[in-house]
Amino acid sequence: MSKKRAQKRENDLSSSEEEDFKPKKLKSEKSPEVKSKINIPEKETDDEGNEYYSLGRDRRISLSSFKGKRYINIREYYEDKKSGEMKPGKKGITLNALEWKNLLAVADQLHLSQEE
Question: Residue 71 CB: number of other CB atoms within 10 A?
């Protein structure tokens, strides 16, 4: 703010108005009361017998095997209009054991940085 504007603002405000004047809070300052509840999803089974956990908004995480190796799949699903079944969409990621461990390590660091 320029000096002229600051002086004009000081002159315009009376003493009672000065007491009422408070700067606006930034949106990033959230009160600690406004925390989203974390619901731990229950294990579910699809039509083919595969177990998965729902992450919300048609997203699922599951464990799979391919050529003797285990993978974690995080994928979006959609409802097939013809059959009404939930089918995997194009968006998703498959992680091997090392990538999964790295993701968990990074997730802990991200969680700690959000608390500060």
Answer: 16
